[in-house]
Amino acid sequence: MMNSRLSPYTVMSDASLAFAASANTVSPAAPAARAAIAKGTAAFKRSNRALFFGGFSTFSLLYCIQPLFPLLSQQFHLTPAQSSWSLSVSSGLLAISLVLLSAVSDRVGRKPLMVASMFSAALLTVLSAFAQDYAQLLALRAALGIALGGMPAVAMAYLGEEIEGPSLGLSMGLYIAGSAFGGMSGRLIAAMLSDFLSWRWALGVLGVAGLLAAAEFWRSLPASKNFVPSTRGWQALPHAVQQHFSDRGLPWLFCLAFLLMGCFVSLYNYIGYRLLTAPFGLRQSTVGLLAFLYLIGIFSSVWAGRLVDRLGRRGVLWIMLSIMLSGILLTLFDSLPLIVIGMALATFGFFASHSIASSWVSRRARAPQALASAFYLLFYYLGSSLIGSASGMMWGFDGWTGVVAMLGVCLGGGVLIALKLRHLQPLGAREAAG
């Protein structure tokens, strides 16, 4: 069961959902005395430093391939849809492995699995730089997705178990900052290095950086003191699945996660193809600068949370989705400033919508609440994989117009879901702010 000390801290990001996914097993009662890590201690500083490196490494290695799609298309004579498989296969297998490996961590421990995950993912990224053909690259990226499943969920579980309650929000925030910084910098570094050297150098350098981050993580992270092995978690799974999918709101939120992440990843997957060719003809490194727009997203998730506190989720979610949709439509214009503005609006709307939807799942779900968040995250990454690949097919059919048409239909469906959720009845006092 989820530790009761976590309930005041609802963190709205990929990492927070991964934390919830990791708690889907039932553990024996913890010892009465818990030696929690307190703020200001050496152990607190070491754990925060380690988890920042962990978040950075995980998401930089996952998303560094995204700006390389046009170069992979040239190198291996691929269509945009085929090139996008190098990310889709990783995110799809990550969606599955994060649930399975979080259960494994409940038996073998947090730190050993995280260390193995980080070293494995970094080594696989280094090996990817030497792939002789695209099939080898896909196989290595698939293995990377599986390996990364042992990091995000387990990292947040570690924080929940080891950090004292009053300091948990700060530790989670630092981990999430590392995750967001990794997602941004992985894209940016890969774009820069591939422009001036090659895509192989980009993957090699980031893989070596991942190995160094893994070494620092292993050196700095204090060993678990409050971990209690569990073997009973899967017994209650069938009933919990039935309970969550029979809820009137949760399945719609799962669908929304699928559409949101699928559209957002597709936008960044294929915008490079549009900007590298006429009438723009930008350099690879220039296109990579779009990664800085992630800073807007970090702001919007916090801003949306504050707005929800005043107006409620029902009155805000559909507006944020509409902002994302309007931003995507702006990219249809053959004007670079309008495209950048459109990307910024879409990024703003995505992070805001994701933060609202993910927190709504946590607030709406009955026990076991963690499993509901695990399903949200599962659909989230499956959307990245499936819609991301399907959008590439639309590029082959009608270029950027085809991509935007598909994303417009998907987000239009998302807006309809948000409008439907406006009439969702709350679950008593727990949903009073909903």
From TrEMBL:
Per the UniProt entry, what species is this protein from, by scientific name? Janthinobacterium psychrotolerans
Homology family = Belongs to the major facilitator superfamily.
Question: What's the protein called, per UniProt?
Answer: MFS transporter, YNFM family, putative membrane transport protein
**Chief place of localization:** membrane
User: Pfam families recorded for this chain?
Assistant: MFS_1
Q: Which GO terms describe its cellular component?
A: plasma membrane
Listed GO MF terms: transmembrane transporter activity
Compartments reported by the entry: Cell membrane
Transmembrane spans: 50-72, 84-101, 113-132, 138-160, 172-193, 199-218, 252-273, 285-304, 316-333, 339-362, 374-397, 403-421
Q: Which UniProt keywords apply?
A: Cell membrane, Membrane, Signal, Transmembrane, Transmembrane helix, Transport
Protein's membrane topology:
Multi-pass membrane protein
Q: Give the source lineage, highest ranks first.
A: Bacteria, Pseudomonadati, Pseudomonadota, Betaproteobacteria, Burkholderiales
Q: Which PANTHER family match?
A: BLL2771 PROTEIN, INNER MEMBRANE TRANSPORT PROTEIN YNFM
